[in-house]
Every structure is written in structure tokens, then in C-alpha cells.
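so my prof wants the structure for this chain in the C-alpha cells format not the other one, which i didnt know existed until like an hour ago. anyway here's the sequence
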Amino acid sequence: MSTSENGISAQNYQSAKGFCVTAAFWLVVATLAGMILATEFVAPDLLGNLSWLSFGRVRPIHTNLVLLGFVFPGLLAAACYFLPGLLQTQLYSERLGLISVWLWNIILACAVVTLAMGKTQAREYAELIWPIDLLVVIFFVLVFYNFAMTVKQRKEPVLYVSVWYVLAAITLTAIVYIVGNVMWAPTTGAMTGMPDAITLWFYGHNILGTLLTPMAVAAAYYIIPRVCRSPLYSHTLSLIGFWGLVLLYTHIGTHHLLQTPAPTWLKVISIVDSIGMIIPVTVVLINLWYTTKGKLGEIHADVAAKFVFAGTIIYLLVCIQGPLHSLPQVQRVTHYTNWVVGHAHLAALGFSGMIAIGGIYHILPHITGRPLYSRFLADLQYWLILLGVSGFTISLSIAGLIQGNGWLNAETVYRILPQLHIYNVIRASTGVMILSGALVGFYNITRSLFLNRQDLSANE
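here's what i got, hopefully its the right format
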């Protein structure tokens, strides 16, 4: 019976396999929804007047599936592999892990159906109706219990920083989700006035800040030292980065509301903490990049590490943009424009999404006992996603600056829209690359899991 690098039988990673398939499948659905949206910008009447394909219904399907259907399960798959290894014990309950996999897929399917039917709470990133919200919280409780019990029965006394990040992500997100979705008001899922807007963006920004970011950093902290075969540069820096993220990121959501009657003191806190995020981000990147010093050959030779390393570079770009966006003078030009859409895609797909794919490719040989089905397809997906998200972000950034400057100069909408057409065409074209990358990845991952008969030991 084959074993992973952690010394645990490959048969004991059923939940990790389940989350790998979940992420690969929903990435295809999410990018297909994104292509529908991009197409509607270029040719609004092409798809007819089908209500369930209207922009207002497809857009929340796309955003929820990217964040919760692809990135989170991909990072969770990696966590289900590296937590047992770091703790020197098996996952507390693979049965509970599989229940979590099925529950999460049921949640995602219900989300697609209800959003396509127009059943929504009409709050950005918090569109899911109350019964689905309840299932989401139950899911987080199950995952937390499984991980916490694994920590409790560990044989390794020292908790590596990746364990800190994963447990914090699950715990904080469960709390943030309940508050941000106003779950104590099941009939509306919302409050009224500015308190609702403040609560919404406390949640909306923290989906990235307390869920995807710590999970992605946890995966990077595990994979990069493993591939480089060298210890993490500094454990102290890793803890500084962890506490900096927890203390600063949770307060910055109000920088989405600088042009609203939100309390001034709350706006100031959000701006200061947004600028302060430069510190934990810089600490994390210094720690990871110094670990790779003199080891870039190993990074280039390992396709999973290439995804992760590219994700860390994009993390730097995202966290340069983010603090700048929080400045009122910058927001006068960029807010409510395509610039913000480009930034969101760079963060979700470019940073945490690239690391999620890298995490899946890193663990696949170890949870199956066989090599990756195709290194070529993995490399192809790498370039399709990287070039696609780069072109997507650049085109939307240019379009956003055109919009912002036009509005500052009191230009009317009908004069600005024709100027955006070519950038919407580029947006759709790069979307084809991203969708193609999703399809290639789904084929490669499923073949690696179920239809790949090569033996890992024969290739070592």
C-alpha cells in the first residue's frame, strides 16, 4: 500500500480527494458563468431574454462559485493533506470529512439553483438565502471540529504556522459569516440603512481576508519549504505576519464606503488599517522569498510550486493596489469602475486561486500514490490562467481609468461606453483562456485521481 510523504496511507485522504474534485468541477462552472457575463458586455442581446441568464442572476453565481466553489475547496483540499502531516497524525475523521465534502457540494448546487431563480438577499457576496446560510455555518462547524480534534490528538507538540492560519480561517469565517449575513433576521437577511452597509462590507472584504488569504498563505508556507527542501526562513516572521493579518484585516471593509455617510471614525480606521496591511504582507513575502533564495531552480522544476510562487508575486501586486484603493483621492477615480473588478479578479483568481491550484497539484501524487497524470497539461493550465488573468486585469484597469476620469470630467455615460468596447472584447478573449485553463485542469485532476494507472514508486 502506497504512502504519502507524510507517512500516511494514500487511502486515508478521501476528503482531500473529494475537495480536489469539488474545486476542479466548480471552477469550470464558475468560469463558464464568467464567460456569459463577459459576452453580455460585448453583445448584450446575444443570449436572448432568458431570465436565468440575465446579468443580475449570473453575476452572483459567478462570484460565489469562484470564491466558495473553487478557491476555498481547493485550499481546503491542501489543508486536509498537510494538517495531518504537520501534526503527525491522521485526520480525526475521514468519514466526517466526506460528509463535509458532500454537504459543501449540496450547498453550492442549491446556491446555483436559487440564484438562477432570482431568490437572493441582494447583498454583494452575501446573496445566499437564509436556509443555505444555515447549511454553510453547519459546514464550518463540522470542518472546525474535525481539524480541532486532529490538533488535539497530534503527536507533534509544536504547531507550525500553517496550522495557525487554517484554524484561524475556519473559526473567524464562521463568526464573520453569521454577522455579515445577518442570520438573526431570516426573513430579510439584512438590516436597514448604514448599519447594513457596514455589516455587509465587514463580511464582504473578510471573505478574502479571513478565509481565502490565511488558507492560501498556509498552503504557501507548507509547499514552498517542502519543494525547496529547506526550512522556513523565520518562524518569528511567520507569527508576526499571522497576528498582523488577524489584527488589521478584519477592520478594513469600510474603505468600500468612503463615499457614503458611514461614521468618519470608522472610515479613518479602515484607511489606516488598509495602509497598515503592507506590514503583514511584506513580512509574509520576505519570509517565503528568502526561503526560496538560491532555490528558484527547484521552484521552476515543480509545477505546483510554480503556481504557488506566481500566486505570491500576485499577492504583492494585490496588496499594493488595496491600500492605494483605500485613499479617498484615489477612490475618486477608481471606485465603482472596472478597475475594482480587475482588482477583485487579481486577488481571487491570481493570488489565492493560483495557490489553490498549486496546492491541488502538490498533493495529488501523495494522496493517490501515483504521479500527476500530465505535467504538460498542468503547465498549459499555468500559462492559460496566468496570461488570462493578467490580460483580464490590465484591460479592466485601463477601462476603469477611462470610466473614472470621464465621470470626474462630467462626461455622460453614452460618450464613455463606446470607449470601453475594445476592452470588453479583450476581457472576453482573456476569459476564453481562463475557461480553457479550467477545463484543462478539470481533465488533468480527474484523470490523476481516477484514471491514472501509473505507480508513483516506479517513477521515483
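also thought this was worth mentioning. The chain has 15 helices and no strands.
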